[in-house]
Design brief:
Strand order of the largest sheet: 6-7-8-3-9-10
Order of helices and strands: EEEHEEHEHHHEHEHEEHHEHEEHE
Number of helices: 11
Strand content: 25-35%
Helix content: 25-40%
Largest sheet: 6 strands, mixed
Number of strands: 14
Distance between the termini: 40 Å
Amino acid sequence: MRPMIQIKNVSKSFPSKAGKVDALQNISIDMEQGDIFGIIGMSGAGKSTLVRCINFLERPTEGTVLIDGKDLQTISNKELRKTRQEIAMIFQHFNLLMQRTVIDNICFPLEIAGVRKKKARERAKELLKIVGLEHKENAYPAQLSGGQKQRVAIARAIANNPKILLCDEATSALDPETTNAILNLLKDINKRFGITIVVITHEMKVIQKICNKVAILSGGTLAETGLVKDIFTEPKTEEAKRLVYQGTETTAYMRGKHFVRIVFNEQSSFEPVISNMILSFQTPINIMGADTHNIGGKAIGEMILQLPEEKEIADKMIAYLINRKLAVEEVDIHV
């Protein structure tokens, strides 16, 4: 089955006073129908440029973008406008029409598409129930909280039954509790309608919460891509490690030798591994930090340990942990 979104060798350059700026360099990513696909990177990584290339608001300098098999570079302008109707977008600052009520905001794209008023309002009322705002249909955006505004924006975005929903830093302006609620809503919409969702963010916690796959951008290049659980467990590139470790405050001030990060997953032993290791080697260790993450609905534990200074014992401890089916890697990156 062909991917819903195919990005093939895409590069994008912009002219500037200092010369050409390469915002994207030779990016290739496939996103399957029904994926919740995360694109993550720090500021300037090229995330927003890439998402604008997906709907051809920015035309790539080189390369190809295919949406459900259609090459956006070769289709007519009329066909491109039609294809763009299948790609909805939500933003950090909601972009609601302030002079329209909630229900009229949701009806707006339906009006543009030529849907009759009665049918448009029926569809809007259905969507208000889905996003949990049926009691707010006659309110104006100024009367809503940030989370409620984003719910309206989501309802408006999916009003015309798009195949793809692009979310550009859609939770960056929200508090953690509201962010969690919006991410749960997006997961529900993905499951309910089968919409392919692309999440643009700089926060690994957002990726871990909602996405099944992720692409990590760095300086306009693709640093790493794969399943979220695989990259979280064993990040291979420095950029991936930096993002995975960004929630682990202890890595900012670790000093010394033999720091390791271990990850417990469903294949790991259920024995008290750390306690048993200390007893087995009769040697203390330092626990620098520990956390539990929900990735794909499964709890995955993470710990950062400082092993003994003596290399021979540290190496034996690492082997002990690996034999218990834990993912183990030495931590040598400071965030």
